[in-house]
Amino acid sequence: MPAISRDKTFVLGVGAQKAGTSWLHDHLASSPQCDPGFMKEYHVWDGLDLEAMAHFRDRLMKRAQRAAAQMARGQDADPENLRLASFYADPEAYFDYFELLLSRPGIRATTDITPSYAMLSAERLAAIRDGFGRRGIRVAPVLLMREPAERIWSAVRMYKKRRPERHDRAPEERVLEVYAEPWFELRTRYEHTMAALESVFGRDGVHYELYERLFEESTVRELSAFVGIDPVPADTDRRVNASPKSDLLRLPDDSARRIAEHYRATYEAAADRLGQDVVAAAWPDQRWLDG
Length: 291
Prior knowledge:
By secondary structure, the protein is an alpha/beta fold. It is 53% helix and 9% strand. It is built from 15 helices and 4 strands. It has helices at 21-29, 45-49, 54-72, 79-89, 91-102, 122-133, 148-162, 171-178, 182-188, 190-201, 211-214, 217-227, 253-262, 264-274, 276-282; strands at residues 5-13, 109-113, 137-145, 207-210. It has a 4-stranded parallel beta sheet, sandwiched between helices. The termini are far apart.
């Protein structure tokens, strides 16, 4: 296997959903040393491995079939659909694509920031590491974490905004119905993602950060150093894909207490990596676990 170069880095963004991944993508893309390609979320490995995400693969293949039919008729077709379909058909094409981006002058980093990659197995993460390793490219995993109750609360509001006809309950009622369901558990149990990542990359090979600290210049400088690019000014006042939240509407204390207790191990895992004082200051709902 070729020597791994720190000058060529693939940023593997593994979540979490509603934890600033869109902002992270946009910030990295603003660097002249980073080319993230044509998408933020490629949804290749979750589409291949996770039954819960198979709809991404099915939707893409239908789009690819339409594009192929258009080409057969001599019409213009969406090249992005065809390229994504090629990644599913032959995962080596995925590695080849990002290797091509990194071969361009001045480019030191590229990215695939797909929040549902938080659910990938250690075996898949190792395959991603090795696929890029064969090309001499370092894989730099990044996990952004948001306070569990707030992450779920934000996701519930997002789903209601997108599909109000399917989410007719008030968000403060809905959050208590779903916080322990598998769809939310898998995206919120950061300790499981951490364990899988560290089994493949080691603790020092993964960058962890809290959503609540993300929009700070010092945080951005640390992230840039981990990726291996020069820091660029960050738009720390901007939020991307934020879920609407009235100043008068907050998660009731009893709900926050119940969710925090359910995810006690998640709080503890984050504190183990980032420090108890750091997590306690950033995640107020941890107060329900004190004492």
